[in-house]
Design goal:
26% helix; Heat Shock Protein 90; 168 residues; six-stranded antiparallel beta sheet; alpha+beta
Length: 168
């Protein structure tokens, strides 16, 4: 997730909110990640999406989209990032951001000891830039990509099924 990512404004960023506040939703997952933690991140996202009321297939969509964004941070960005998920009465939102290390001398240019270099993609699968964001846009109901001098942030929203919404 470098600064060359096109910016889309089809969904607002989730504003910061007080814990328990419905406006920004209830925080259900907030986790830092790097290459060695991607598997655990996928499991946590899948569990949080299912607990929010999404079907198994829709929960897998959330997990795949979150994984693609996290993998982009690792492969094309700073190598470390943060994922947060919030749930409201109507949506599950997920925000993935880079953790920049340029201003932290002891982290700049270093990888975690348990974070091996990311291997190149197998030659049997054509590598084309944009597949990850394409998948995110196909699975999420709303997506916003923001890139700037302090890194990139991608926010995606998944609507909860009408059956889980409270009746008026």
């Amino acid at each position: 997730m470098c600064c060359a990512v096109p910016v889309s404004t089809d969904a607002p960023l989730v504003p910061p909110s007080r814990p328990g506040s419905e406006a920004g939703g209830r925080l259900v997952l907030d986790r830092e990640f790097w290459a060695a933690t991607l598997s655990a991140l996928r499991e946590a996202v899948l569990a949080a999406a299912a607990a929010a009321g999404l079907s198994r297939d829709r929960s897998i969509d959330v997990m795949l989209a979150a994984h693609e964004l996290a993998a982009n941070v690792i492969r094309h960005g700073s190598g470390r990032g943060r994922l947060s998920m919030r749930v409201t009465k109507r949506t599950v939102s997920c925000q993935v951001s880079e953790t920049l290390t340029a201003g932290v001398p002891e982290l700049a240019g270093q990888r975690q000891a348990d974070d091996p270099a990311v291997a190149p993609a197998p030659t049997s699968w054509p590598v084309e830039h944009g597949h990850g964001l394409w998948l995110v846009r196909k699975t999420a109901d709303q997506v916003q990509v923001t890139a700037g001098p302090f890194g990139s942030v991608v926010s995606m929203t998944f609507n909860l099924p009408a059956a889980t919404l409270p009746t008026a």
